[in-house]
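User: Predict Epoxyqueuosine reductase's structure from this.
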Amino acid sequence: MDLKKFVKEKAIEVGLDIIGFCSAEPFYEIKEYLTFRKQKGYMAEFEQEDIKLRIDPKEIMPSANTIIAAGLSYNVDFKNSIDVKSIFKGRLSKSSWGIDYHNVLYRKLELLVDYIKEIKDDVECKIFVDTGSLVDKEIAKRAGIGWYGKNCLIINDEYGSFIFIGYIITNLKIEADSESISKCGDCRLCLDACPTRALEDAYVLNPKRCISYLTQTKEKIPYELRDKMNNKIYGCDTCQLVCPKNKNVKKGRTKEFIPKITNGYLDIVEIFNLSNKEFKKKYGHMTGSWRGKNILKRNCIIALGNLRDKRAIELLNKSLEDSSLMIREYSAWALMKIDRKIGNRILLSHLEKEKSKEVKQEIYNLIEYFDSQ
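Assistant:
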């Protein structure tokens, strides 16, 4: 039996869009770059710090011989729309439109492993969907399912860059595919379009400035970067939307990624009013929900500040009483962003009853910051 052909056929059968194979040899070629990122402080808070675990598959599975890389397009055929009468809407990136891709892609890889185990008794397999320590983009590149764009995303010739990546480490010996090579040429549209200049150069990303990262981090977001986030509540598609390689590409066929509940947006006022239990019930299926309601609520507050509509002042004034210090601090920022005079008056009045020293200091910092603008 042609094992490679069998796996490729079953991959399509279980609903995967792209499949490729590479060796499980260490990724020594990226060791220097990972060290550079660590030294520059570019590592995200949810990244594995041990570089050895990031480059050597055998640290994860000693018997590893092959890595099966899979891609699943989330560029589904759907046009979102927004009610212009209700501006209090927060934008979700395509990656968070439907059901959490971790679950969708993992299940498809599980089905593929089940098929493999039917014909191979002694097979060992470990599945990873954005949960392993290895650099999944390097696996995708080596396995030939895509190449690095200058925006540091993997681009597939058929589906573009709107793809999720998962992989299976296995002891099976399967012929490897050819590694992909970048096809960006002289194009630099993504670099010029990045709102925060997180793309410092071609193939060089500072994640601490990337809006996609900012919408997920628990670290304090600098004022100047909040200004660039617009009304983005989770993720950022800017560098992908301007990319020529995403024009006229093949659409994804995974119906779970159609945003039936959100239409691609979150109702900001609703997020303010939902309890944690209600939030989980309605939005727990969504990729962005993993960070919890409060982080998304914080992002909604930033969106309100950037929308600068005075109708949001009452809502933000109420959120100054929130039990979360973070929510109170960001609400204070949004009030000042919308209207300095009104915000100043509200915050000075709030100082009389604010018990947190941290929040008080933040309010003083905000007043000084906006007065200097």
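Residues 101-119 form the longest helix (19 residues).
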